Amino acid sequence: MSRAIISEIRKNHILSLLADGKRTDGRGLDDVREIKVETGVIESADGSAIARYGNTEVIVGVKIVPGTPFADTPGKGVLTTGAELIPMAHPLFESGPPGEDAIELARVVDRGIRESGMVDVEKLCIKEGEEVWMCFIDIYALNYDGNLFDVTNLAAVAALRTAVIPAEQYKKGKNSPLPVTCTPIAVTAAKIGNTLILDPNFDEEQISSARLTITTDDDGNYRAMQKGGKGSLTLDELTQCLDMSRDKGKKIRKIIG
């Protein structure tokens, strides 16, 4: 995400707390904020959800329509993900076409869903080479207080898990649940100084030197990874991030059921 200016006093306060294994909001280094998920929030969508990590809030709508498959995948449905970071979510965000931050957010979420095989796209085929179901995942940030990646992933996953293919609307048979195979969960670690923390809030995110988002599936397999920031991670730090993503991903799946 884009950077804001954090005062030296605020920065030094955060660093001082981290040196003692503490954070400004009272969490431990590997704790995430309170998670809330609500599904079925957009009546006109085929699937939808709002996810919250603390004060960071994202809404996702899923729309499923018949369309033409890609030439190189004639027997597979289509997944498309887009994100908008609207000004009401944070002063950093500007109106207009999606910027680099929105594009990166959409790609990271899309990659986690796609590479985990969450949606069985072969079952979205209506007639090979002619018609398939196209699944559009639309992301809107409602409030930004750090770590949009994990919150958006959770909202998108929750929306997809409850989505229904509207076959009756298009006279393509009976309605059916979207063919979902697993629940991919993204876990983001930020490096501040020499300390790794999970689920960075806004201030922590602004002073971090590196960020690593890892998506795992139900079995703890690593499915996607995205690094951000100009800083580097040591091999030991990478191993720590991998271990934390598996552990935290398992706990988050239990929260959302």
Distance between the termini: 29 Å
What is the strand tally?
12
The biggest sheet amounts to: 6 strands, mixed
β-strand amount = 25-35%
Order of helices and strands: HEEEEHEEHEEEEHEEH
Classification by helices and strands: alpha+beta
Mean model confidence by pLDDT = 95
Number of helices: 5
Spans of at least 5 consecutive residues with low confidence: none
The Rg value, from CA coordinates, equals: 19 Å
- The global form is elongated
Range of helix content: 25-40%
Characterize the structure shown.
The protein has 257 residues and is α+β, with helices and mostly antiparallel strands. Helix content is 28%, strand content 30%. It contains five helices and twelve strands. Strands 1, 2, 3, 4, 5 and 6 form a six-stranded mixed β-sheet that branches. A four-stranded antiparallel β-sheet has the order 10-9-11-12. Strands 7-8 form a two-stranded antiparallel ribbon. It is elongated, with a radius of gyration of 19 Å. The model has no long low-confidence stretch (mean pLDDT 95).
Secondary structure elements and their pairing?
Blueprint lengths: L7 H12 L15 E5 L7 E7 L2 E12 L10 E8 L14 H17 L8 E3 L3 E13 L4 H14 L2 E2 L10 E2 L7 E8 L2 E4 L3 H6 L2 E7 L5 E7 L6 H22 L1
Parallel strand pairs: 4-6
Antiparallel strand pairs: 1-2, 2-3, 3-6, 5-6, 7-8, 9-10, 9-11, 11-12
Helix pairs in contact: 2-3
